[in-house]
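Teaching assistant's notes for section 4

Start the section by putting this record on the projector. Ask students to predict, before seeing the second block, whether Pre-mRNA-splicing factor SLU7 will look compact or extended. Collect guesses on the board.
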Amino acid sequence: MATASVTFKSREDHRKQLELEEARKAGLAPAEVDEDGNEINPHIPQYMSSAPWYLNAEKPSLKHQRKWKSDPNYTKSWYDRGVKLFQANKYRKGACENCGAITHDKKSCMERPRSVGAKWTNVDIAPDEKVESFELDYDGKRDRWNGYDPSTYTRVIADYEAREEARKKYLKEQQLKKLEEKDSEKDGEKDGENAGSEDDEEDGLRIDEAKVDESAQMDFAKVEKRVRTTGGGSTGTVRNLRIREDTAKYLLNLDVNSAYYDPKTRSMREDPLPDADPNDKFYVGDNQNRLSGQALEFKQLNIHAWEAFDKGQDIHMQAAPSQAELLYKSFKIKKEMLKSEHKDKIMEKYGNAASEDTMPRELLLGQSEREIEYDRTGRIIKGQDVSLPKSKYEEDIFINNHTTVWGSWWKDHQWGYKCCKQTIKNSYCTGLAGIEAAEASADLMKANMARKEAAEDEPVQHEEKRLATWGTDVPQDLVLDKKLLEESLKKENARRKEEKDERKRKYNVKWNDEVTAEDMEAYRMKRIHHDDPMRDFLS
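Reveal the predicted structure now:
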């Protein structure tokens, strides 16, 4: 289950690995063992049991799930500031001559230099500081806020809040002062009593609005404090950032069949106004965010990881995202290199019309001083040589001592060279000698074929061979002795009776492997032929 390192596996090895994992899950195979001899649970997912690629793990293990970089000597703690330990009553040898503390010397003393040091007065001996020595780990060395007390930041917050309150109070006083001055000026005027009464009412309303608390007047700047949230969060502040002038998504198009609005997630994926002018639309649906920016790059990265996994590479986007991103970057670099190589090959073969090479003057201006005459049909009569069309292949190039090109001769549905009448391409030219040799070989082949056809017409007579009874050729002077033949027949009858009743066979059997012509003839005469209709009458 826990892969040691990222290695390429064939399809057969991958299938065997899956079968082994299923057998381990079912309990049919023993569990995998790590470096320390502990069994690894086969039900642990692969993205948890497989070690990251940059660890170069050679054996399966679960150490990467623990603090494998932790060192008991390292710590993240910080010095205790202002802690005092022991305060002596008199000066001690080796202590600071200025304050009397034994934890530092006079040179590094942080107190104000006394006119007469504690070494000579033995008065106001400073307490000893707490001296600590420890090694910081990787995070502790690089933590810029290590040892910082967060409670000290409350003073900074209090300073900013007091400054903000003073600014608001000053602005409110200035606003009230301006309104009162404007009201007093209008009271002095005698004309326009009706207009003056209406303005007085408006100014009074403005004064009342200015006296109202600013946090209650503007809902946008309202700050709400949450202590016990539904998600279990801690105390925090939330500012209402909704602008009331914005039109809600579901009010952009009131058609029932328009884009669907999900009230739970407040999302509308499709465009509510697809037929409107794109320049006038400020909202085109939530799907626009998925098809632009880094979302599209992340989608392509996922697709590349899936395709690489299908082709046999051990890559997983969720288990090893850094490895997947590095492989995707290397893939894009190789792809661009292949594109550039292909482009260079095409430009090298066909040329580049967009290059900065200067064109000929005749082609650039489209005119020349050469006089050309044309007829009524537009054909050239005089002034320019007729150029024959040329092929992209090489022409009039003779190889291997040939005086003609390949394809200048045709015979029996085959192309060849006319100079030597050969039908084998890239062969060496033999000239007239080769033609005469080819004709002689053709005549000889025709004569052989005619002789073969004449021989096939005559039937072949096979000589009949007389075979002996035991399978060899029968000599011409072979003569069988009648007395010996009768004795051989008696021996054959006795052997057959003995085969039928094995009880008559003696204990000591003498065997002779010498076979004579009479014995073979007797065996042949007594042998039963299964296709003989008279076989039942043979004794």
